[in-house]
Write a structure and sequence with these properties.
54 residues; mainly beta; 4 strands; 0% helix; binds iron/sulfur cluster; DUF1540 domain-containing protein; DUF1540
């Protein structure tokens, strides 16, 4: 899947089925970034909502 990496979306979550592996990129054309607090106060409040376990 390395050939289809999206260089606009860096990602280190290699447990995800959409990770390019080998290089730290996502392979999706579009991801949804989400928050799990009503009001996001810091980076820990945000997540990738497109994650799917490999
Ligand atoms: S879907 Fe999200 S978690 Fe998965 S590789 Fe892409 S950016 Fe990373």
């Amino acid at each position: 899947m390395n050939n289809s990496k999206n260089e606009s979306v860096g990602c280190i979550v290699n447990e995800c089925k959409f990770h390019s592996m080998g290089e730290n990129y996502c392979t999706l054309n579009k991801i949804q970034v989400t928050k799990h607090e009503t009001t996001a106060k810091d980076v820990q409040c945000t997540d990738c909502g497109s994650f799917v376990k490999r």
